[in-house]
Amino acid sequence: MKTGVTISKVILCTTPHLDWDWILPFTALCSNIPPYRIGEYSYFSSTGGDAFTIFSQATDLLAPNGTPDPAYFYSICEMGFLKAFTDANPQIAGVLKQAASNLEILGGGITSPDSLLPHGEAFIRNYLTGTSWVQQAYGLFPKHAYVPDDFGHDSQLPVMLAAMGLQGVAFERVPGGQPTNIPPLKGQGPSPAQWMTDNGTEFVWGARDGSTAIAHWLMAGYGQGSGLDPSNALTQIQLYIDANAPSSVTPTLYVPVGTDFALPTDTASCVEIWNQQSGSAVTAVAGTFDDYIQAIVGSGLLGAPQAFRPQPYYSGCYQTRPRLKRLHYDATRALLGAEIFGVIAGARNAQTCGGAWTVELQARTSALREAWLGLVPSTHHDFITGTAADYVYRGEQLPRLTAARTGANGLRRDAMREIAAQVTAAPQSGEQPVVVFNQLGFARTGLVELAVPPTQNLAAFSSVRTPNGSVPFQADADGGLLFPATCDSLGYTTCYLSTDTVQPTTQATITTSDDGASYTLANALISVDVSAASMWAIDTILDLRSANPQANVLGGTSNQVGFYLDADGNNYRYSCEQGASYPPLKLDTSVTTVVTGAQVLETGPLRVRLQAQLTCTVAGADYPYQLEYLLAADEPFVRMRTTGNCPFGYSAMTMFDLSAEVDVIAQGTPYHWDDARQVRYWTGPSMQATHDFLIPENTSGAPLCAIYHGAMPAWGQGDQNSTLLVGGLARNPGENYFGWCPIPAPPGGIDPDVHTLEYAFRVPTGITVDSDGKADPSDGAQLIEALAYTTPLTALIAPPNSTTALPAAISLASVSAASGASTPILTVAKPSEADPASLILRVYQPSNASMDVTVSLAGLQALGGGVNDASLVTALEQSISGGQTPTVTGADIAFTAELALATLKVEWSA
Asked: Measuring CA to CA, which residue among 867, 882, 881, 878 is closest to residue 903?
């Protein structure tokens, strides 16, 4: 123990760890009848069982003979399994409910989520979906998060935990810890594992915005107490004390009793034996994680909040099986849009439909709940990471996520169609109304993507009349139309296809001067040269608004496809992460590439698009790749799409040679941002789990560029002190992680499939910097650009039989700051879980300082709704005791957003 600390208590907390799926599919993990076997291997050990068996035995210990035992406590983390058990075994579940406070809901998500890779809102919805169910079914609610098996953690995790109203968090896997114990490179560190060993396993984890969480590192593993039983209680409990005491800063120790699908342990008998027979001054207690958190907080010994950056741990999974990541993000964005447009579509009916509106609202809300329930298991730390067995990946995860995306897209499309059929359009002679939708929580101008039905003949039209004037349109290569428009926050506007001829005021161009051996894509902001000689990679990018507009912002050929040797890697880890003696990822310089074609797909004036093909010969086999470049007229970034598959034993990456050494990468996190210098543990590529945007900085902090992406998290320095930036395209590493089961390696490797990855490169001019010239994401500008890139404006053709029930344009809600340069954003507009007639709005603000904001619901008012009351609640939609009271003035609601995330509940009526 630390100086001056005497251990007085050890809390034994019985809890299993229940993976949603991993080696077995979810249904087999619920009830393994008939037994699901992998050859001769049985996943469940002699001390383990399926979830239904585990919960049945826990019920017997919590309430023997139906009577609660006050001495026994049990903690359950994963509500997906508890819900399945409750639905299948209502009588036993009825007995379990009698345990009351002796049954702890720890975490309370549908699954135990990863905190690095999921969409930030999906991370929250995993908990919202689980806690809403368990609160209704059992009358219980969690106080803390429990993420013991994540492969590293989001440095800004307290942002989401504090927003959800969760006080504490327990975790295990951090850099420098088991099983690889890889130390930082010389001169860097210490590793998080070493820092906590030296300074304490319990501390206050602070995020950049001031959010905090009481953190506890499970230094001996989440299965530390899995061998405990009454026959060995004296020796085992002493071992726990000896292991944990040296790094404790408070007098209380915590020991998790259980592991993967472990049957319950009779901890009540174990502590009785210890307390009666050990003769120790340390008292053993059967209790909960909440007991532990309250004890260490009450000790007054935790100290001030500490910045904490527990990654990279297993960073190979950032790049593994990218299709899962793409499906997850697509489905999340679609559901967020479905909620917003569903509120708009239904709000008018509140005034006109009377009691029928309640039925409609319940049906819409129920469909959304089911859709989220289908999606949120993908946040699991062996799901979105791509680390499950191949037959689970292909047989359960891909089908489930594909269905989730299809369903989410359908819900959003249906709500948009409902709106389009109700708008009050005012077409002039010969015009066709179209409705433009913006699901993002800020007003924006950009290219609208209009999907044109095959039966629709638009040959007569040549422009679009918008509320801001007439603009040209352009046919895209996929059969739709593109045109520029402006749309307010969380809403729609009506435009009109017109027969008028309009000339573009700005345009994008694509030119070639050597019969197609090279092309230049350009607009007023950026110019991009690509050539066959460089295998259709980028030779030059000019920042046309910079002080030196003819200087190449690149240091060399960029967007090259590189194949890194990864023979020793597996689903989880790159080769270099297997241990300190393993080699770094190394670029295979023996790869040869030949170009096989290029086509100009779009010639402007609104967007140009080039598609090129090449063949890479890797280890004697040919791999076709396709590169696309898209440049819109008014965007300071070039969009890219890379399609291909990864050879066995390799990791495929896109490589950008920048104009100066990459020192720090400022980046989006699931629901905030960070810009700390990465601690490196190996030479060669070192990847970070990025969200939405990343800004590589030179050694002075100046931005070298920005990269935007929607589902391609793995980006990092190509090497220490290098100008190289790399992004993970796909992986097909050489090792079979599951050989110990033994599960044979799948033919062709863990992921021989073809994938398409999308990303964009932004020039430095216009990237926000602080007074020292360092990149500064705190105003939200790069996040806003990135979100607009990943979620374009879309449009539908209004049907001829519109009911004219809705105005021609609506912004359901908007948010503004009273002062300052930072821009707040509305990220969610949805019905309340407990009361769907109330509206939930989520406000994100990136400033890392408190911000006075005003949310305007003028659009709701225009739909016939009036604001009755507003209150701040947690992201899990629970009331906040002693919190501030927002000021309601007509349709405006003012409050102080003290942290990055705030959730507003609005009670309204027609």
From this structure: 878
Cis preceding-peptide flag for 230 (omega within 30 of 0):
no
Determine the Cα–Cα distance for residues 289 and 13; give it in Å rounded to an integer.
7
Distance CA 722, CA 776 (A): 22
Q: Which two tokens stand for residue 774?
A: 């360092």
Are 320 and 731 within 8 A, CB to CB? yes
**Quick one: DSSP state of residue 443?**
-
Q: How confident is the model at residue 851 (pLDDT cuts 50, 70, 90)?
A: very high
C-alpha span between 117 and 126 (Å, rounded): 13
Question: Closest Cα partner for 438 from 893, 172, 887, 788?
Answer: 788
Q: Is 281 exposed, middle or buried (0-12, 13-18, 19+ CB in 10 A)?
A: exposed
Burial 891-901 (b: 16+ CB within 10 A, else e): bbbebebbbbb
pTM of the model: 0.98
The CB density around residue 41, as the number of other CB atoms within 10 Å, is 12
* Contact (Cβ atoms closer than 8 angstroms) between residue 828 and residue 332: no
Percent of the chain predicted with pLDDT > 70:
99
Which strands, in side-by-side order, build the sheet including 607-618? 592-603, 607-618, 621-632, 637-645, 754-762, 706-709, 691-697, 664-668, 673-674
Half-sphere CA count of 81, side-chain side, radius 13 A:
29
Q: Is 502 helix (H, G, I), strand (E, B) or coil?
A: coil
Helices (DSSP H) in 231-321: which residue ranges? 233-244, 267-277, 289-298
- What amino acid is encoded at 423 in this protein? V
Distance separating alpha carbons of residues 577 and 716, to the nearest angstrom: 15
For residue 25, cis peptide bond before it (omega within 30 degrees of 0)? no
The one-letter code for the residue type at 422 is Q
CB atoms within 10 A of CB 273: 16
State yes or no: cis peptide before 454, omega within 30 of 0: no
Per-residue confidence (pLDDT) for residue 123, from 0 to 100: 98
* 167, two tokens: 């006080």
Lowest mean pLDDT among 99-103, 291-295, 353-357, 566-570: 353-357
pLDDT at residue number 682: 95
Q: d(Cα 43, Cα 41) in Å, to the nearest integer?
A: 6
- Residues contacting 337, CB < 8 A, separation 6+: 412, 415, 437, 439, 791
